[in-house]
Fold these 4 entries.
Entry 1:
Amino acid sequence: MNTSEVIRNRHSIRKYKKGVQIPRKDIETMLEAAMFAPSACNTRPWEFVVIENEDIRKKIMEISSHTKMLQTASLAIVVCARPDLQEGKCAEFYPQDCGAAIQNLLLQAAELGYGTCWCGFYPVMERVEKLQDLLKVSSLPLAVIAVGEADEEPKTRGFFDKERVTYL
């Protein structure tokens, strides 16, 4: 599959085939793609928590009702920001930088044949703080990515809208 096909065929998946084990090499390939994302001054202000444990995934679902797909997902990848790694002219770009890392991860997962769903946590600080406590991290959990083998085929929702483009 080429890049254009992956972009156009990637969907948010909320139903997964339960019990599918994702090989460690595939997880590392997804994380490697995430870490190849551009970042302000190449600060790479991210860290990742891979959650295969079902009990921890259940606790995440208690923190946010928007993560119910974790009931059947194979795992969750929590993308955490490290604003402490950015200063000066590069300070405070971590949301954009982590967003680029997340997009790379989603596209790599799709290319490997997995479904994903990006569940935002930041900037809702109540959720962020509860997830920090659960994961025992001082970094900022920005998003939880559900990953697994899709058990649904949602319709494509994205499209090109010429009305949202200005040429100067």
Entry 2:
Amino acid sequence: MKELKFRVWDRIQEKMLIPQAISFDTHSSVPFAVSVPGKSWEQIGKFQLLQWTGLSDQNGKDVYEGDLVKISSVIYKIIWNEMLAAFELIEQGSSNRCDLSTVPTGFVIGNEFQ
């Protein structure tokens, strides 16, 4: 089974956190609450849930949805494409796309939130 990892962007405190637990609705599989270090359960609306792509960059850093990745001097953002049910790389400032398999040749330079 593929390992699933998440991180969350706290929209109120404006910082990235690693959740201790995520609670999903049993009927719709939609997340509805998150537990983060130092706090009990909080509604998901306070957070942006970001999933790990399953890939690492050339430095071995895990790559998540929302990350900015530099590949051959071009910066791409990792997004989740609902229609394809897959992660994609979108070139910043254009609509050009790049194959996700190129991530290991680039490196994470930040994320869309920080």
Entry 3:
Amino acid sequence: MTTFRPPSLAALLAAAALCVGVAGCATAPPAGTPGCPTSTDDVPVQALYGGWDALFTQPSGAIEAASVNFRPHPEYPGSVRGEIMRRAAGAQLAGDIDDDGVFTLDESQDGRTISAVWSGRMTRGSCGREFKGTWRNAADDATLSFVLTKKAKAP
């Protein structure tokens, strides 16, 4: 008969250290498991709600960070509304995942006119917790790459 032995403290600490180095490992199921979307089409709108980190790659190669928050859109079921905060300036966001599986957001600095458009797809294997795409400035058509990553929930 085999006797159950709990893992040693050293083994638990090693596993915790490994987890800290992997973004979201405690909050996202491994790719291919039930509940882990494999395409943007499978991402429920509720998975978009909450806090996200946005990284934009500037033409110089510099990275600009921003914070994004999404909630249900009050007028359009299946869509999100939110805000982005970058360099102490904010803007409003609204969007959804369209029929082609593209996550599209309209950004507005004044709440009336579109100042930028985001278009991206879920990163393969991210279980709906990361999207990559292109941000386009409506004024001059300048584009930046973006990566949008879901923030881990606080314990």
Entry 4:
Amino acid sequence: MKRFTCDELVEVITAYLEDALDRSARDGMRAHLARCEGCERYVEQFRATIGVLGDPPPEKLQADVRDRLMSSFRERQRS
């Protein structure tokens, strides 16, 4: 099972939510989320954002919108 840091989780969150990670990575993400309240909250915020936006895949968002969202999530994670 892959072990994730909080920063690594941020980088692969969309793959996790799209169920595009291999089993080892998916299990590692779940283990990290089970022990990290901040990351668990981050994932829920990301899911809520996707719900509000109508579920467009991040790669289909305009680049500036995607960059602003990702920057906001990263800043929130650090605080």
